[in-house]
Design a protein that fits this description.
InterPro entries: SUR7/Rim9-like_fungi (IPR009571), SUR7_domain (IPR052413). This protein has about 300 residues and is of the alpha+beta class. The chain has ten helices and five strands. Strands 4-3-2-1-5 form a five-stranded antiparallel β-sheet. The chain is elongated and about 90 Å long.
Length: about 300
Amino acid sequence: MLLRLSVLIPWALCTVSFILSFLLLFAGHKDGFLEEYALIRFNTSTLGYDLVPTSDDTEEDSGGIGGLIDDIQDGATDLLNNIGNNIADRLADELGISQWYSVHLMTLCRGEFEPNATQPSPDHNVTSCTKSSPDNRVNLTELIDGELQAGPLHISLAEINWPSQVDDAISTVNKILLAIFILYCLAIGFSGLAMITALAAGVLDPRRSVVKIVNTILVLLAFIVLLAASIGVTVGGKIAEDKIDEFGGDIGISADRGMGFLAFTWAAFGTIAVALIYWFAIFCVDRREKKRYRQSRVGQKGY
């Protein structure tokens, strides 16, 4: 009886893994839903900060940033001059872009920092989310470029020397998203089935061979796909973050991996790993009991 009740342990573990995987898959599917659990977030609050006129810029007649500013309409130049020391809080607004963009598995969200971009650990006020299927991602570069051209300054990313390495980093994120999406779908499926079979094991007897094999296979499959997904998110996100921070710093763009996403994905993996250990333990316990039974039978015959 106690052994039958013990199947509640893998059931609970698989349930936790199922819920965490589900939340990661659907985070950001509507404005503000689990926004803190984005895969990666791009900080564009100071994008184009080198456009803001300085004393050196105003002395230059042409060329470089000075030449670009000379080409901007007088009204737009006034906007830049008025930003002053509030560059991190006002520049994105003046350029007509959002202060941050976050990548989720199925959406791309954007918004503003609350109360402002200079506040330590600010909140994220979501202004909109764009549906973005894993196999047809929204091109963030084109999105920002379009917003810049539609903004007050009517400039393009080319005019602020947008590095090609940043494009490469964004492409890296987009490429792994389809694989990660598929892995989490599989994880939800396998862990969900493992929840059902764990309850069935309590009814049928967890020591029955078919019960042990089915449960172990399902949990093992969930273990494998969650391990692959977690490693992919961790490594891929780190590569993209480092590349964007290295090459995007000069134009005022940075990236941050979603630590909440990482915590959830490794927690989902950890719980399914413990469930797998449970079923391996059941195999070992059952094997030991059968061995003792055979030995006792041999002893009785010898007697």
